[in-house]
Each structure stands twice: as C-alpha cells, then as structure tokens.
Design brief:
The complex is a heterodimer of chains A (302) and B (152).
Chain A lengths: L13 H16 L10 E6 L4 H13 L3 E5 L13 H11 L2 E6 L4 H8 L4 E6 L5 H15 L6 E5 L6 H10 L5 E5 L8 H10 L3 E4 L11 E4 L10 H7 L18 E3 L20 H19 L4
Parallel strand pairs in A: 1-2, 1-3, 3-4, 5-6, 5-8, 6-7, 8-9
Chain B lengths: L14 E8 L3 H8 L8 E9 L3 E9 L5 H5 L9 E6 L2 E7 L5 E3 L19 E6 L4 E4 L5 E3 L7
Antiparallel strand pairs in B: 1-3, 1-4, 2-3, 4-5, 6-7, 7-8, 8-9
Classes of the chains: A alpha/beta (302), B mainly beta (152).
C-alpha cells in the first residue's frame, strides 16, 4: 500500500482492509509508537470538521509525527483565490502525506492525482469518507469477533447518509444481511439496493423499528435532519419513530452493539448511554487507532 | 402517381456515411466529431422516418475516414449508429459503433458540486450501462445518464 492514496474505501482490497484492521488492533494495545518520527503530515481542512481533524491529529501525535496545515480555508491561500491544484502541488513538496477535507466532491481524487505523496480523504462533500468506514468496520469486527454473515440494521437517513452508503458497500464484501429502517423520503437509494441485488445479498426495508430488532447484530443509527424534508409536517410525523430508546433493547441479542457516526442529536435517547450495548463513544476512539493504521500503511511503515 | 425513388440525402463519392443517429442526437454528434470545424463537404438529413428509431438523422461526410476511437465517442449519444465507408460510390465497409468502457472529456459531469465543474479538470467517466448509456464520474462518483448529457 506504500505511496498509495486512500480516497474511497474501494481503493483497498479486502485483504488490505483486513491488514489495516489488524494493525489498528496493535495500536489499540500500544497507542504510542514513534513510527512517524521525522515525518511531516499536512492536514488541510478546507472545510472545518473538529471531530475528524482532532482524531487525525491525535493519531499523528501518538505516532510522533509533526503536523502542518490549516483548519479553515479562510485562513489559507485559498481565500486569495488559489486553485486546489496549486495548493496541493505546493503542499506535497512540504510534507510526506496529505490529509484533506473539502466540501467539493471528487476533490480528494483529483488531489491524489496531483500530489507526489499519498492523500487520505477525510471527507469530500457528500461523496466519501473512507477512514470513517474503516473505523466502523473495526468497531463491528471488534464487537462481533468477525465481519462475516452479520445482520446489520441501518436506521434513519439512508438517502443522504454518506457513512451508511460507504459502510453498506464495504460490508457487502462479507455476506451481510441488511435491514434498512427509514422514512419514505429518506429510503436507501435504488442504485445501492441494485448493487446488493447484483451481489445476491439479502436486504429488507422497514418504515419503523419492528419486532425483528431481536435479529440485529449491529444497529447503525444516523440522524434524521429536519432540513431534508420538503414538508415540515412529514418531519413532525416521523421524527420520533427513528429514536432509539433503552426500552426497545430488551429483546435484542446480548452481543448486539449500537453504532453512530456522531454527532448525535436526539436519535438515541440518553437513557441508552448506560446500556452496555451502546458502543458509539468507544467507536469514536477506535477512529484514532484505525487512522494510525492507515497512516502507517500508506507510508509503507509496518 | 408513382412516387419518385430518390435518396433523401444525396450520395457521396468517397467518405463516411453515419446512419441511424437518433434525430435528437444529431447536433450532439456534430459537436462530438467537431464537424462544425471541417472544411469537407458535409450533408445532413434529420427527422427522416425510421422503423427502429422513430425519427432518425443521417450525416454524409465527403473525403473523411474516421479512426475507430474517434467514431466510438458518438456511441454515447447514438449507440445504434451504423457507418458506411464509401469509395467510388460503393459501400466498401460497414461498421457499428461501440460504446467504450471509459471516456475522457466530451461530457460534463451533471453534479454541480463535482470538482470538474469548479476547476480546470478534464472529466473522466466509467461507462456503467451501455444500453441506456450512463456514466459514473471518476472524481465525484455520481452518475450522469444519457438524458443529462451536456457535451463540452
């Protein structure tokens, strides 16, 4: 994987994903390892994102690397009208690897073609955010002991949710059964369902949490945003349907875990937080280990 | 009264005839092949009757023989087009166009948030359906389908 970029989770083969997850496990056991000593990593956040940036910076710091970059394009040369092309050209001569987040879709793929060093996509608009997918896979494998033959419930905004699309595509490599629970307006797009059909994978669609919740191995919650609805009345009708409460977890499997890409608003009731099946805060921590692993893999260290 | 038997678009001595172009795609074909910049003699016919296409168009270009790679570009808008290579008023070769697997340039990505619509980046697509041609953008990964093709 040395000198390759990670723009979309599909850039990695199944073997490469598993290797990365194995390495992340090592970092979980021993988070501080000075493997990036003497390396400079650029973190270019053309669009602010506190959570992802802190997770990357924490990963780089624990590996002993140095960071250059900006956290907002208003404070960079972009505000003077510099093209992405020129910014990336310049930055790739200053650093050993580029982590970038940009609101324009396809910007990371383009940057990876210009840069002389590896590029990690930390989110390009509504398109891809592969390290999020990697940490989701890590969390699923860690809590279930395997990625094979699981039953995954995806809940909430399945239409615009970038994380659920990437996770669905990635998990389709391991014979997953999917249950999609979403309001009519926010259903999983047809092209993604077609993708599963072509692979011969099973999926089921529901408009609310049904009694089949007991079959879930993973419940992946997402936020249903008011601004996604053209009709505010429709939002009012469904806004409480997609809220997970502790009382609903009574008949779920003991090994079932709840994931959420965070930030959460009200879709998981705080009464769930103390349930051992709530895993979303640990999930966020796993992001640091998986990003450590991705950084090392792309730099050819380990 | 007997109908006079004659060609709707007159014959050429040497060159290429592109037939079975959907009438609505004629001007896109002209644009893709850059015919508007040719010096050769070119004749067009459009809204001609066709059993298969409803209304078809035909283009005859004198003294011009295309490379396969060039001509396959029109497959995006005229996947059923047929080529007749004419020498000395005779058809010496017939060809069909083939939808390529990848295309560079030609079409704009329909996603307004795509990098190719912001910066000077040549569009690149993978063809994901050859029947009703649809393209997946190499950059933003969104799909542009035939109805939304805008030729660059």
């Amino acid at each position: 994987m040395k000198n390759r970029s990670l723009v979309s989770i599909d850039d990695f083969t199944t073997g490469e994903i598993l290797e990365t997850l194995d390495l992340a496990e090592e970092f979980e056991k021993k988070p501080v390892q000075k493997l990036l000593e003497g390396k400079v990593i650029s973190t270019l956040f053309f669009e602010p994102s506190t959570r992802t940036r802190l997770s990357f910076e924490s990963a780089i710091n624990r590996l002993g690397g140095k960071i250059v970059g900006f956290t907002d394009s208003n404070t960079s040369s972009v505000s003077k009208g510099e093209t992405l092309h020129d910014t990336i050209k310049m930055v790739s001569s200053y650093s050993d690897l580029i982590v970038m987040r940009h609101s324009i879709e396809g910007s990371a793929r383009y940057a990876s073609e210009i840069a002389s060093v590896p590029v990690i996509n930390a989110g390009d608009g509504a398109n891809q955010h592969p390290t999020q997918t990697m940490l989701d896979l890590y969390s699923i494998r860690k809590t279930q002991g395997t990625l094979d033959n699981l039953n995954i419930f995806m809940v909430g905004d399945l239409k615009y949710g970038r994380t659920v699309h990437s996770l669905m595509m990635a998990m389709s490599r391991w014979n997953t059964t999917f249950n999609f629970i979403a309001p009519e307006e926010l259903k999983m797009p047809d092209e993604l369902k077609l993708y599963l059909e072509n692979l011969g994978l099973k999926y089921y669609e529901h408009s609310d949490f049904t009694d089949i919740i007991s079959r879930a191995d993973i419940i992946y919650m997402t936020r249903v945003q008011k601004e996604r609805f053209s009709d505010p009345i429709e939002y009012e009708k469904v806004k409480n349907v997609y809220v997970l409460r502790n009382s609903m977890l009574k008949y779920t499997k003991p090994s079932m875990r709840i994931l959420h890409p965070l930030p959460r608003v009200n879709e998981i009731d705080p009464d769930v937080d103390s349930n051992p099946k709530a895993y979303y805060f640990e999930q966020a921590l796993n992001g640091v280990f998986t990003r450590q692993a991705v950084l090392c893999k792309l730099l050819g260290i380990k | 009264m007997k109908e006079p038997k004659q060609l709707s678009v007159s014959a050429i001595e040497n060159g290429t005839v592109i037939d079975h172009i959907p009438a609505k795609s004629l001007f896109k074909v002209i644009q893709i092949l850059g015919l508007d910049r040719f010096d050769n003699q070119i004749t067009f016919g459009t809204n001609l009757e066709s059993k298969k296409l409803g209304k078809k168009a035909i283009v005859k270009i004198s003294g011009k023989f295309f490379e396969d790679a060039d001509i396959n570009r029109i497959a995006l808008v005229a996947p059923d087009a047929k080529l007749n290579i004419i020498k000395d008023y005779e058809v010496v070769e017939k060809k069909v166009v083939e939808v390529p697997d990848h295309i560079t340039g030609i079409v704009k990505c329909m996603n307004p948030k795509c990098i190719t619509n912001y910066e000077h980046v040549k569009t690149k697509f993978r063809i994901i359906s050859k029947k009703n041609v649809s393209l997946r953008c190499h950059y933003c990964e969104k799909i542009t389908s035939q109805e939304n093709f805008k030729i660059i």
